[in-house]
Amino acid sequence: MLLAINLEKLTGDFITPEKISLIIRVILILVIGIPLIRLIRSITKRIVKDRLSPQSEQLVVRSVYYVAVLILLITLLNEFGFRLSAILGAAGIFGVAIGFASQTSFSNIISGIFLISEKPFQIGDVVQVSSNIGTIESIDLLSIKLKTPDNRYVRVPNETMIKTEVINITRYPIRRLDIYVSVSYNDNLEKVKTAFMDIVENEPLALKEPAPLFSIDKFDDSGINIQYGVWVNKEEYNDLKNSLMIAIKEKFERENITIPFPHIFIANAEELK
Questions:
Q1: Which residues pair with 218 in a beta bridge?
Q2: Beta pairing, strands 166-168 & 174-183
């Protein structure tokens, strides 16, 4: 009997009309706020679509989304009795430490603004940053995200993108495919050039304009290095590379053009005497 009375008293102290009202208000804020944030994000996407570049569009949509989430969090904290002034006052205690730790983040944000305004690349471009080559999937205020050909995820801070040489491989609609092949010193170079031009003429993926390049690169120890340059639409780069490598080997075999390679001679001590 005494236990039931104490339990009833404890329940009555915990479940008060004020707390019930607070729970109802919080539920209403979440029920209305979360769909409203999604709606605002969707409307923002529709407004900026086709008006901004993909990276600027992504930045604006995310900024609006983060601001909306922040407003929702502040509203919830306010319902629980946390005042914004008190939160800011408490944050000021850690201001120096946070400011020191956020120097890198601030530098990345400034670098991100420069990248977005300069537009050296956009979402979908293939870029090379140091030793990493990948497709840009996201451009944010702090970093860009790359997806490499072997399906790796690479995050590159914006500050690094500003300070490092970045090669945009797919900026222009066409690319030049360069292939280096060595031929024997005994081969006629005019014959080699004619064979190469025949290959390009019969290759449907190779562009006829700009004209293909045939250049003698250098005289090496075992042969003469030739540079072949063929222009191709950027989407067909790898397909043309494979096709040309096969075609060059087959053509050289038919024309008796030799691709030299280093030879190693092994002799025993008795033979050298």
A1: 225
A2: unpaired
This prediction has a pTM of 0.57
Residue that wins the pLDDT comparison between 59 and 259: 259
Bigger pLDDT: 150 vs 58: 150
The Cβ of residue 112 has, within 10 Å, a number of other Cβ atoms equal to 23
